[in-house]
Amino acid sequence: MTVAFQSWASAHQQRFEEVLRHLLPQPDTVPQRLHQAMRYAVLDGGKRVRPLLAFAAGELVGADLARLNYAAAAVELIHAYSLVHDDMPCMDDDVLRRGKPTCHVQYDEATALLVGDSLQTLAFHLLTDSALSVRPAQQVEMVRLLAQASGSRGMAGGQAIDLASVGKQLSLPELEFMHIHKTGALIRAAILLGVQCAEPLAAAQLARLDHYGKCVGLAFQVVDDVLDAEADTATLGKTAGKDADNDKPTYVTLLGLQAAKTMAAELHDEALRSLAEFGERAQRLRELADFIVLRKF
């Protein structure tokens, strides 16, 4: 990663943290405990990969930063809600997330359930805000994109497949199908939402950006599986080896460690090829592909 990219990412991460602090309900607003728990689940944690993808895609099309803030926040709130629910005892039953106790541990299960529900609805509220000030048809398309990426044909559907796959041996196409939905759908949505914050691109260009998102989304999961097998809990900020302990299929258990790393590299290369026609406008997206795939193995 270049110093210029690190500065760009760090500046956006710091600025976006303040955006989230402003857009989330304030902790002294009734019901205080729920709003405090929402802020606990969202703030001061994570790399903000999905918002960075939205900002980078928005820069490619010359989108206004104020609009991008709302699109990026909507995606990040959906992601945060999914983590809260994913960590609950009825799902993965985890106690650590982003280096601190999970939401249901810090508060309680009922509050964590309501936190997820509230973050999800707030995400869609943000996409209907007048601050987006895009064409009505684009705003409706943004709501549709996020809804599809979040629901049974996207993230929630992928999680359902994941839960049903515990203890089973999946083929590579089956594993890819699961993660295209569970992890990849929201990553692809982040890119497309960023693009929708400006004048719409031609369908062929949108398709190439979507393919980039598909590749980096899959690569993100492959690298996560590798790190889960190699890194320790302190490094990850979540319980290491959890998937293996729960007998979940991963790219490492299916392919082996080295083949999984090779797959991540191939997906990285394919993602970069998808951006070829955009030239320098796609530089941040290229660097984000590097950031996602070239995390320490």
Give a description of the structure.
This protein has helices at residues 3-23, 32-42, 49-61, 65-86, 103-106, 109-127, 136-150, 155-164, 172-195, 203-230, 233-236, 242-245, 251-255, 257-274, 283-293, and strands spanning 96-97, 100-101. A hairpin with a 2-residue loop joins β1 and β2 (100-101). It has 15 helices and two strands. Helix content is 70%, strand content 1%. It has a single domain (3-292), classed as Farnesyl Diphosphate Synthase. The chain is globular. It is mainly alpha-helical. The mean pLDDT is 92. α3 crosses α9, α9 packs across α10 (203-230) and α10 (203-230) packs antiparallel against α14 (257-274). The protein has a two-stranded antiparallel sheet with strand order 1-2.
In short:
With 297 residues, the protein is mainly α. It has a single domain, classed as Farnesyl Diphosphate Synthase, CATH 1.10.600. Helix content is 70%, strand content 1%.
Distance between the ends? 15 Å
Q: What fold name stands as the CATH topology?
A: Farnesyl Diphosphate Synthase
Largest sheet: 2 strands, antiparallel
The CATH homologous superfamily corresponds to: Farnesyl Diphosphate Synthase
Number of domains: 1
- Proportion of residues in helical segments: over 70%
Give a count of the beta strands, DSSP E runs of length 2 or more: 2
Instruction: Return the CATH class.
Output: Mainly Alpha
Give the oligomer, counting copies of the same chain as homo and different chains as hetero: single chain
The percentage of residues in β strands lies in under 5%
Mean pLDDT comes to 92
CATH architecture term: Orthogonal Bundle
Q: What is the alpha-carbon Rg in Å?
A: 18 Å
Low-confidence stretches: none
- Treating each run of at least 4 consecutive H or I residues as one helix, how many helices? 15
Shape: globular
Q: What class do helices, strands and sheet pairing give?
A: mainly alpha
Order of strands in the sheet with most strands: 1-2
- Listing every helix as H and every strand as E from the N terminus to the C terminus, the arrangement reads HHHHEEHHHHHHHHHHH
